[in-house]
Give the backbone structure.
Amino acid sequence: MNDTELRQAIAMMESYKERVEALSRQVQVLRVSLDEVSMASEALKAFKDAKEGDEILVPTGASTFIPVKVSGNRKVIVGIGSNISVEKDVSESVDYMDANSTEISEALKKSVEALNEAQNALTTITATVQQEYSQRQQAASTQ
């Protein structure tokens, strides 16, 4: 490997490092989103199955729940993105959360696959660069 190829390999290694970091952040965000949607979905299902007057726990985030008594109103305000919320009945809300969960799960799966590919490529290029440095050190020490 000549000096130009080594510099290109190092640049590629840095590029893969940045990609791995970005994908790691993306995976983290998707996992948090999936947890949030799952918690909301469970609360909606409890609300859907509850009878008027029953007490259920409503998650507020950070592993905190508020006990509330269920009224006859079966409407739910659901955020649909871009700070827009709509009123849906509880069954529609459960379906929406399930679809949202499926979408996030698929995105998470693809992101994890891309992360694994980038990590494998980074490992390969790093090993190549380290091997070249070792060979150059050995050659320099024998001279």
Notes: The CA atoms of residues 5 and 11 lie 10 Å apart. The chain has one domain: 3-125. The domain at 3-125 is CATH 1.10.287.370 (Helix Hairpins). The first strand starts at residue 55 and ends at 61.
